[in-house]
Predict the 3D structure of the following.
Amino acid sequence: MPGAANDPYEVLGVPRDADQDAIKQAYRQLALRYHPDRNPGDGTAEERFKTISEAYATLRDPALRRRYDTLGHAGRGPAGSQPDFSHVDWRVIFQEADIPMDWSRRGGVPTSGNFVFDALFRGVTTMFRQAGLLPGEDREVRAKIDLATARAGGNKRVHLPGPLLCSACRGLGRDAGGVCATCGGTGILARGLDVDVKVPARAGHGTRLRLAGMGGPGQPPGDAYVKLDVDVPATARLEGRDLVTEVYVTPLEAARGVSTSVLGVRVRLPPGSYDGQRVRVAGGGVGGDLVLTVRTDTWRGLGRGVLDVARKAVDALRATPAHAGPPDRRGGKGR
Ligand SMILES: [Zn+2]
């Protein structure tokens, strides 16, 4: 049974045989009357505006209208459920009926569907938000920080996606100087905001930093969480708060003891160190230790400068036509 209150003909006050033009005119009259700009913070008017807009969305579309005429309310959506308007492009509908809608004041143009009503009333008044209709949603963003920042702490610039409540005026749209310059009076930052997040020292992989009230707009606004990814070089890995890698020295250095730098940490290997030895440097990780395996691989233990010279010499030899590379070692199988 179609609920009489939701009968689109009754909602718009038009006869069942009304033509498209009459339907549009009726909708326009009602829409202007219950327009959110004219009734800021009035929940009843808001509901009414939604209802008449949905009624119009039903009757303006010949296929939808026929289904409604045949099946009643069930024709507008799955049986027993609310009619589904998620595929309706409300922008087109408002435009066609010549209903003014300033999207720039409403946190941006919605793409389609039910979002439109969120967007419609989002920027209207502080009264509406503070009436506490809905809490804002929590959001999580990820941020990559380097080892130095993870160890010592520091600032990290992070983009928080919009829309979110304007932090300059706390969503009020006005400050001491009048209209808030940051949000232009809407109380909403549609495109989000870049913020400098304070990363605490010894911030481990996966640390979550909470930015209160920086999530989705609402009453109360949601929180934003910044989840940290520590950017570790490919030669190392994080195990919990320990940083694990290898240190390459020559056999002679290992035997005599040597002081070197590993991932920004000063490391002193005692005399008598050996290949495969595990060395733990307290505080050298990210809130944990630096855990090293000593490698006395001669070639890799050589200074990089020496290696480069050697490689260049080899490359030069290969590039010389007189030395057209070594003979085919595979015994004539060809390449
Ligand atoms: Zn503002």
